[in-house]
Amino acid sequence: MTKIRCIEELVQEFQEQRPIRGGSLIITIFGDAIAARGGTVWLGSLINLLEPLGLNQRLVRTSIFRLTKDNWLTSNQIGRRSYYSLTDSGRRRFESAFRRIYAELYPEWDGKWDMVLANQLDNELRKVLKKELEWQGFGNISPSIMAHPMADAQELSNTLQELCVQNEVIHMRAEMVGTQTSDALKQLVHECWNLQQLAEDYQQFLDRFRPILRALKATDELEPEQCFQLRTLLIHHYRRLLLRDPLLPEKLLPADWAGTSARVLCRNIYRLIYAKADQWLSETQETADGPLPEPAPRFYKRFGGL
Q: DSSP class of residue 105?
């Protein structure tokens, strides 16, 4: 098995960035790999897994400590070994954050909008709500009105409850009258969401990963460790883009939207490497009961089916 040069370069780029955000990469690994395979891992094996990506033992321990403090992870001490698992709230947050990564490309849009009217809130609480809803893709129609054409109803409801504002804001659904793609609506979308910057970032993603897809297709035998490293960095880069993507319906997006090509590219690479990456996880990662369990059945539904 030969190493693919452009994947080595991708890993080297990540190793050389400063600062290396260990917590963010660990979230990617738990969300993409560990959560689907029981959700628990021995810290020692995780340290060994991360070292080739440029995270030394001290950085991993510090990052894990912070994730535990923030209630993403919980630890279980058995003898001298520490095993880290997702907390219940951590699991919910992982599932919420990663659901959009593996979802189908563009679900059918019914022309309806979710609107949140927050004019009853004081300025500070309105800012907090606005920030939370922006993470979910909402745009600002006016200072106290936020809207999204394909909001996750459960995620929105959970946010309103967590902030204890469900009785102080008005959540309504509005339906388009007439065409769903009028010039006025496209202008509103342009004003509410910064799609130009996002399109440029998606283009950088395409430029970085398209040569890797070509190299994968030209290689007969893929190395498991490289497949794991590529899968991790692929999802890591893509996840950071999706955090800023409002995931609007296709009808509201500019023609030749780079986000569409980026999703297809991510899916195609993932399908080629996921099995070998899981092989590396099975060989290197440990729980208190031995190797990681096999992936849960729903793992294979990612990207419309692996």
A: S
pLDDT of residue 203: 97
Side chain identity at residue 295, one-letter code: P
Could you say which DSSP state residue 262 is in?
H
Strands 139-142 and 73-78: unpaired
End-to-end CA distance of the chain: 23
287: tokens are 């729980």
Place of tokens 């689907």: 36
Torsional class of 106: left (φ above 0), alpha (ψ -120 to 50), beta (otherwise): beta
Beta bridge partners of 287: 290
14-17-21 Cα angle (round to 5): 85
Q: What residues does 81 pair with on adjacent strands?
A: 78
What is the residue whose two structure tokens read 């399908």?
A: 271
Tokens of 135: 């993470």
Which residue in this structure is represented by tokens 């991708």? 10
Contacts 24+ apart (CB under 8 A), 75-79: 75/43, 76/40, 76/288, 78/288
Residue bearing the bigger pLDDT, 195 or 100: 195
Q: What tokens appear for 196 in the block?
A: 């130009």
Q: What average pLDDT does range 48-67 have in this prediction?
A: 95
Tokens 């910064």 label which residue? 194
H or E element: which one contains 193? Answer: none
Predicted confidence at residue 135, as pLDDT, reads 85
The pTM of this model reads: 0.89
Q: What percent of the chain has pLDDT over 70?
A: 98
Give CA separation, 255 vs 83, 186, 227, 272, in Å: 48, 12, 33, 28
